[in-house]
Amino acid sequence: MRLAELFSRTLKADGQIEFVAYDGSRSGPADAEVRIEIRSPFALSYLASAPGELGLARAYVTGHLEVVGDLYRTFHLLGDIELGKLDAKTTLDLVGLLAKHRFWWPVSPPPHEARPKGWRHSKRRDAQAISHHYDVSNRFYEWVLGPSMAYTCAVYPTDDASLETAQFTKHDLVARKLGLTEGMRLLDVGCGWGGMVMHAAEHYGVKALGVTLSRSQAEWAQKAIVERGLQDLAEVRFMDYRDVPENGFDAISSIGLTEHIGGANLPSYFSSLYSKLRDGGRLLNHCITRPDDNFPFKAGGFITRYIFPDGELEGPGYLMSRMNDAGFEIRHSENLREHYAKTLGGWCANLEEHWDEAVEEVGLPKARIWRLYLAACQWGFDINNIQLHQILGVKLDGTNSHMPLRPNWEPPQA
Questions:
Q1: How far apart are CA 308 and CA 129, in angstroms?
Q2: Burial grade of 153 (CB within 10 A; 0-12, 13-18, 19 or more)
Q3: CB neighbour list of residue 399: distance below 8 Å, 6 or more residues apart
Q4: Which residue segments constitute the domains of the chain, with CATH numbers given?
Q5: pLDDT, tens digit, for every residue of 342-397?
Q6: CB-based burial of residue 25 (10 Å sphere; 0-12 exposed, 13-18 middle, 19+ buried)?
Q7: 3-state DSSP call for residue 384?
Q8: Least enclosed by CB within 10 Å: which of 196, 264, 320, 349?
Q9: What DSSP assignment string belongs to 75-127?
Q10: 377 carries an active-site annotation
Q11: Which residues contact 400 (CB under 8 A, 6 or more apart)?
């Protein structure tokens, strides 16, 4: 069987994608909106060495497999790629083809794959995992994220709002859920480039401390704090949240950190944050979640090796239970799944707009990793494979939550 036809059958393209292979074969409509090109035998060798998602990703990252057309649209056309669910004949044909390439064209994993060492979620290994993803290049992140340098789900006040407006709205929503007012003390764990820290200081007069395991983020944030004249109120440290010596904070924000903690460590994580708060203080936990906990979590090979080593997702119910067990009274939960799909669409557009600069800054393989990752995640939020929850908890002051009877998170009208 010719290669293009086998790929079309394997990926179940249903006549919506054109396939072109190095053996001269073609399959699918010539006017299809997406074309997949198998450019060399090495594409098959990568698939043979890691059948499924990881092998296909390696072939794409190295350029031996190319997608001509919108990558995000490609995911919608293909859906989940599960080679284990092929019919018997396709499986037999594919196994025979890949077996030959595994030995005729041997390959090693391409560069940029993460293999952190040490005990999972130890301080040392967490530092390696965070550095792998976040210490890419501050300039690269500026191009992808835009001026806000916010690398978490934005909140769109309207469907046509800009990414910058949506990121401002997200930070302001967190501030209002936490009840921030002038003179309060905020701890922002996993603070990234300091967006929440600077927002709280500038717009609410809060004395804010952020901590991150990325040295590049901390250096960028401290420079930005000085440039904006916020050094009397805002600070970002290169530090593990477990090593913060201060206590008695009025509020804690955790925006995009819980995914790196690990399910087994969530009880100690939330207990640690609980101990840092004064009585009546609030915690806002903002993180990627999965729709349910009906099956053990297993991250895909591409995400694990290239994007978030040791990353783990839990369902919102599990997170709320662990917060509750740590002593927090749960006061509010909100799913922002659609907002994250829009956020990722904005990042994808930014990357394409700055593609040449990004390639020059981080190299073509790394840029292709990010193109694949952002498009895949946008698709994942679209189809409800993954979600994003904000969960608000309060450390009771005796039995007093210090919460209004009917909270209103909407900003005051001008």
A1: 7
A2: buried
A3: none
A4: 3-104 (3.30.1050), 123-394 (3.40.50.150)
A5: 999 999 999 999 999 999 999 999 999 999 999 999 999 999 999 999 999 999 99
A6: middle
A7: coil
A8: 264
A9: HHHH----GGGS-HHHHHHHHHHHHHHHHHS---PPTT-----SSTT-HHHHH
A10: yes
A11: 280
d(CA 356, CA 374): 17
Return the residue matching tokens 């036809």: 5
Check residue 135 and give its pLDDT.
Answer: 67
Active-site residue (options: 153, 191, 287, 377):
377
- State in Å, rounded, how far the first CA of the chain is from the last one: 67
Nearest to 42 by CA among 110, 107, 108, 111: 107
Q: What is the mean pLDDT of residues 51-63?
A: 88
**pTM (whole model) above 0.85:** yes
81-90 core/surface letters (b: 16 or more CB in 10 A; e: else): eebeebeeee
CA 73 to chain centroid: 19
User: How does the average pLDDT of the chain come out, rounded?
Assistant: 89
Element (H, E) at 139: helix 138-145
